[in-house]
Amino acid sequence: MAQRVAVSDGSHKKTTRVRVAVRLRPCMGKEDEKDEGLCVRGLDSQNLEIVNWRNATESVKYHFDAFHGEQTTQQEVFVSSVKPILPHILNGQNASVFAYGPTGAGKTHTMLGSPEQPGVIPRAVRAIFNLVKAKKEDEGWDYSIGMSYLEIYNEKVLDLLSPSSQDLPIREDKDKNILIPGLTHTTIDSFSDFDKHFVPASLNRTTASTKLNQRSSRSHAILLIKVVRTQRAPPRRQQTGKLYLVDLAGSEDNRRTGNQGIRLKESGAINLSLFTLSKVVDSLNSGTAVRVPYRDSKLTRLLQDSLGGSAHSVMITNIAPEYKYYFDTFSALNFAAKSKLIVNKPFTRETVAVPVLPVKRAREDHQARGSGTEPQKKKQKEERKTEHDGSSPSGHIHSLSEPSVMDRLIALEKLMMSCQDKDRLGMLKDVAQSRKEIQELKEKQMEFESKAVLFSRLAGEKSKQEPAFKNNVAPLQRKQSTTTKPNKQQAVVQPLQVSQLQPLQQLAVVKKQSVCVKKKERKLSDQVELPDGKENIMNDGWESQLDTSVLEQSRQKILQVLNSGSLKELKGLQQIGDKKAKLILGWREIHGHFTKLEDLEKVESMTEKRVSSFMKANLLSAMGK
Ligand SMILES: Nc1ncnc2c1ncn2[C@@H]1O[C@H](COP(=O)(O)OP(=O)(O)OP(=O)(O)O)[C@@H](O)[C@H]1O
Fold it and tell me: Which residues form a coiled coil (predicted)?
């Protein structure tokens, strides 16, 4: 039996951006009951525009890798957005395609389609079989294709190929591969074989009728196609590529879906996971977050490899043109715009055969020495484990003196020297860099701690007092001025271009709000210009007495609670009661993140004065005053 070790092909470690395509579904007659017209339209194969809710006489333009208009066929979507990434799977790399968008905007139509208009999934699987067939004929590799199919329903991972199974666990191996122990994996050898398993499994997916979609998907569905290819001749290299095809459940505004009871609970889980998805994208883009919150939902945990990981990823954002979807469409487009900034690093997952002779000799040695059955079993168990999890033989230092182990190590070393020098050097460099960063972080933390001690002394408190943030120091983040420095997320969310345009139709959208927002923005900038002015409620001098870096840390801490805190955590903030906490949650659900504390003014009933007093109370409390 061949001993295998995991290696990665350093030569393929290039970065690649998540490709983002937007697909606009055709207007469905009954969706536009009020005959309000359309709020979004395509400009060309990469650009589209949507009415600007802040100023109805303007439109907001977006640029994506591809724009698929109402008339685009299923075949065209597949050829332009999905087909180009499929060959990577046959080279041991991972790829993923996921459909994102509001409920009823066409995600399932895009991914699954119908028998008359098959979508991405059947087309991609058929294409993989065709690619394998073409490759088989001219190369010395054997291919095997398998599938798994699961759904995440109410934060439970359910096996669609084995519907009676319970919630499955998600694990990560030492190479950062996400695994689901117990998930059915079925080998398929033709497209009709795939269809035989896939069609009944799709019927197991949880769907229900809501006000917005008669057959709404209540879960996120993930189909995994795994292609393993093995060299026929020695050294019998083996490469494994995976394709994830994901049909996400739609984001929902429950005021419009009319959801109640179980539908409302499902909706809560759907919105929570999509909100976490948005947080993951934000922290990947910010470049400052130490921890990307993949673990905050099952969905993001499973998509870890597709966002900021090693997969070639394509996101198809589905949108609907009718006015009643306006805000959903707007936020979906903003999510899509920020997703296209994510960078992945695909690489080949490969295993190679290691000479088997020494293993056999070791066993013979044991038998010759009459070492009994127990140690022998133990050794066999260890060998099996190594094969299963790819752990390095260097872990068995106690048996280094055994000639068999020495031989295996030498063989392994030779292999690594011959094909992996570049990769090893890269890894060593990475380790050195990480160590340096950790050291710098430690030094920064000490600096903050001593500043905090100094600060509390100056404030006349007992010098014995524990330094602020000693144990729960927020991760060090790039310093950001909340008033002048443009925020990265804002830069994405803001219109790429705003132009005075012929209005699309029905332009009287929330004009009042736009005036309101502008007025507030002006006031905030006024405050910057007049630091000591009487009108300036926020900057009444108290902030200038505090250490700026500690102040910034506290701001980030409060912002984090505003952006990701539960109802209870929000209520834990000063001056935030039940009603305000709910309003904040509601705002978050619709608009996403607050980029700075002052954004709280956008929440209903949060006046400038209230926000100012909120900030003072919470900042002082966070700083231990
Ligand atoms: N490009 C399209 N062409 C024709 N019909 C479409 C298109 N996109 C969507 N539809 C139709 O619109 C309806 C809603 O689409 P679909 O069920 O795919 O939405 P969804 O985004 O998956 O919704 P949910 O999140 O609620 O599951 C369906 O009847 C579908 O056939």
Answer: 424-451
Residue nearest to atom 12 of ligand 1 (CA): 106
* DSSP-derived secondary structure letter, 102: B
The residues, ordered by sequence, that sit 6+ positions from 262 with a Cβ below 8 Å of its Cβ are none
Q: Let me know: does 596 contact 562? Beta carbons within 8 Å.
A: no
Query: From the alpha carbon of 247, which atom of ligand 1 is closest?
Result: 22
- Ligand 1 center to 590 CA (angstroms): 22
Residue positions forming the annotated binding site for ATP? 101-108
Q: Cβ atoms within 10 A of the Cβ of 434, count?
A: 10
Tell me the mean pLDDT in the region 11-17.
Answer: 61
- 213 CB near ligand 1 (under 6 Å): yes
Instruction: Evaluate: CB of 555 within 6 angstroms of ligand 1.
Output: no
Asked if residues 379 and 39 have their Cβ atoms less than 8 Å apart, the reply is no
Q: Give yes or no for residue 106 CB within 6 A of ligand 1.
A: yes
Q: 155 — alpha (psi -120 to 50), left (phi > 0) or beta?
A: left
Q: Determine the residue of 68, 78, 108 to mutate for testing ligand 1's pocket, defined as the one with the most ligand atoms within 8 A of the Cβ atom.
A: 108
3-state secondary structure 182-239: CCCCEEECCHHHHHHHHHHHHHCCCEECCCCCCCEECCEEEEEEEEEEEECCCCCCEE
What separation in angstroms does the CA of 447 have from each of 263, 290, 469?
Answer: 50, 18, 12
Among 349, 317, 344, residue whose Cα is nearest residue 333: 317
Degrees (nearest 5) of the Cα angle 342, 444, 569?
65
- The minimum-distance atom of ligand 1 relative to the CA of 28 is 12
Expressed in angstroms and rounded, the spacing between residue 83 Cα and the centre of ligand 1 is 22
Identify any residues that bridge with 94 across adjacent strands, giving them in sequence order. 311
Write out pLDDT tens, residues 321-379. Answer: 988 888 889 888 988 887 766 666 666 666 665 444 443 333 333 343 333 334 444 44
State if residue 107 touches ligand 1 by the CB under 6 angstroms criterion: yes
The tokens describing 117, both together, are: 């208009």
ipTM reported for the complex, 2 dp: 0.98
Q: Name the pLDDT band for 168 (thresholds 50, 70, 90).
A: very high
Residue corresponding to tokens 């699309």:
504
Rounded to a whole number of angstroms, the CA Rg of the chain reads: 28
Atom of ligand 1 nearest to the CA of 74: 1
Q: Which residue has the tokens 């759904």?
A: 151
Ligand 1 touching residue 312 (CB < 6 A): no
The pair of three-digit structure tokens given for residue 27, joined into one six-digit string: 């207007």
- CA–centroid distance, 106 to ligand 1, in Å, is 3
Q: Which long-range contacts (CB under 8 A, 24 or more apart) does 511-519 make?
A: 511/55, 511/56, 513/53, 513/54, 514/53, 514/54, 514/55, 514/56, 517/54, 517/602, 518/54
Nearest atom within ligand 1 for CA of residue 25: 1
Q: Kindly state the tokens that stand for 180.
A: 């689901």
pLDDT tens track for 488-534: 322 222 322 333 333 343 333 333 333 333 333 333 333 333 333 33
Q: For 175-198, how does the pLDDT look when each residue is reduced to its tens digit (9 = 90+)?
A: 777 889 999 999 999 999 999 999
Ligand 1 atom having least distance to the Cα of 218: 27
The amino acid that residue 613 corresponds to is S
